Amino acid sequence: MYEKNGEKYFIVDGHVHIWDGRASNQKNVHGKQFIDCFYDYHKNLSPEEVVWDYDTYTYYGSERFERDLFVDGYVDHAIFQATLLSDFYHTGFGQTDEALALVAKNPGKLTYNHAYDPRHEEAGLEQLRKDADRMNLQGVKLYTAEWHGDSRGYKLDEPWSRRYLEECIKLGIKNIHVHKGPTIRPLDRDAFDVSDVDKVATDYLDLRFVVEHVGLPRLEDFCWIATQESNVYGGLAVALPFIHTRPRYFAQIIGELLYWIGEDKILFGSDYALWTPKWLIEKFVDFQIPEDMQSEYAPITVEQKQKILGLNAAALYDIDVPADLQLAEPAGQEGVEVAAGAREPESVPS
Amino acid sequence: MTAVVVCTEQDVLTALSTVTDPELDESITDLGFVRSVTLDDDGVTVHLRLPTAFCSPNFAYLMASDSLDALRLIEDIGEVRVLLDDHHDSDKINAGLAADAGYVGTFGSEAEDSLHELRRMFRSKAHAAAMERCVEAHLKTTDLGVNEIYRLTLSDLASGKAKAALLRRRIGIGLSICPASRVFVDDDGKRIPPESVPMRLRFAKSVRISMEGNAHFCRGLLATRYADSESVGATPRITNLRTRSPR
């Protein structure tokens, strides 16, 4: 819980990792390049006083994770998003067993989302059933642009992918997080495209599709889709840290998101350990649309911040929120009125 | 005897400045993607660099091959070599460029088809963003209402950087730059019904914000990645190894 100026915020960090990017775990040069790329993100967008040294960053371990999130970071509940990258790391980048041990150690405070790859076809489906049972899955994290053998990625609306989504419905996995943003080794245009989300969101109304990184670098495409579909959400990971280095640009992003997709569909995520939640939460609570931009974008209210920082994700994951931290109106509900962008009578831009 | 290489450093930089990052719609020289330029008696060698090793290979290839094409337009440039550094596909792309293999030839079975469609999509986005900038600037300086934007013609726009950029983008997607042409048109140059214009303008604004944001991100990452490097800021390192004086 975070409190500022008498206002209380229930915090759900919707995007965290426990990874091992050390040289000992790297399979090839891409493993090194990948963690270096993450470290550049971290160095470039974090305030100087919270920048870690490289060795700490490559592997920080469970204790540091708990301290940064729950002790220093105000986080009430965090959701692991798996990033396996089996082609780059011996035991995977995200550490599944370590994450599951942390979930067991912190009852009620952590949720683990695993990953699947529909290109593994029938064998992968069987694995998904086992994983869903063993890991108590409520969500999955998908990298549609991940390379596998000769394939440069897959689309959510391909036949095998549909079978996996249908299996998710059977298994009670409701939250489908999709990495659409900074990509790993994509090649052709398809890997960037968010239009596959549009198709499956229409077809599978029992599922919720959380587009991580709000589609950056395709914010506008994501916004357009999210206005059309009541079950499409946006995760703020990677967009939020601009609040420090480029606050005016962040004002534009959040202003566009509130306009197009609305306050019930935006989810906070630090992407820990890319960034630590503490400073992101503090800065977001203190944030306001600059005065000279308020003719373009309405000021952000405390209630909107409460929804974005935790209440929306709590609704998606059935997380108990203490009575004094709830809102009168429920947050993150699918039935709520769509955002302004979707209300205008207009055809889809070509 | 081979022809004496006579082009200047400035010729090279000017040619490279015409190459843009398709996703950001900014010049690779402004973005700091040109790491070094070396002139010698045989020709010119250019090294490019990108903000991360994971920049998508299709864009990396586009910028590198566009650089090669732009440099080859310079008269008497001699042999042109373009090399991409520090990328996960550097070897593949550099070999493909050296062999003039084209995109599909460079990536082989990994590439589905050529990059025309990708390029066209980003040119359309660049056009939408440039159009929005011009219209917003125009709305600020006149009392034109949003519902009258559909009337605007190119001749109504004040000349300057924004208009020049819009005209370039229009040429890029094959639209007329006749002064009597309407400003607010779709990607095919067709006029947009007046009642649809405000919504389309709003969407074009999101396109612009997205592109500008990506440029912030890329500049920041490039600066972080090459913080200790030999070149200062975005300026390429220029080395002249010629033994014969030009011109």
Automatic annotation (TrEMBL), chain A:
Pfam families per the UniProt record, alphabetical: Amidohydro_2
Domain Amidohydrolase-related: 12-319
InterPro entries: Amidohydro-rel, Metal_Hydrolase
Source domain of life: Bacteria
Name assigned to this protein: Amidohydrolase
Automatic annotation (TrEMBL), chain B:
Highest taxon in the source lineage: Bacteria
Pfam families, per the entry: FeS_assembly_P
Protein species of origin: Rhodococcus pseudokoreensis
MIP18 family-like domain span: 9-82
Protein name: Iron-sulfur cluster assembly protein
